[in-house]
Structure formats: structure tokens, C-alpha cells
Amino acid sequence: MSLNVAEGRRRRGGDKLHLYRIASGSADEIIAALLSAEALGYVEMEGLEGTLEALDRVQAMLWRLTHPRT
For the whole model, what pTM was predicted? Predict the structure, then answer.
């Protein structure tokens, strides 16, 4: 996720948008993996709350980057 954001930062045009969209998808994958780990009993939700909140902020940032105001 962070590598796609970093790479997109240096790109222009459609490449930039594409890499930010990939980063958003990767963030969704991370969330799904963490929630799956919790559902399977590998981790406790209390230990994930801060990380999930941070990922929510990242998703909000990526939304703004992929849906610019016109």
C-alpha cells in the first residue's frame, strides 16, 4: 500500500490515479486480513482498533486523492 502511494506521488496523469486506486485496494486487503485473523481467533479486536482506525484515515486520504474536487 505505502509503496503504491509513494510511487503514485511521483507520477503524472492516469498513472498517478491508477496507483492510488491500487493502494486503496491494498488497504482493503489489509483490513480484510486483520478481520479474518480476529474471526479465526489469532488476534483480539482490542489489539486491532488503533490499526483499523489508522487504515480508515488512509482510506479517507486515498478517497480524496482518487476523487478530486472539480
Answer: 0.84
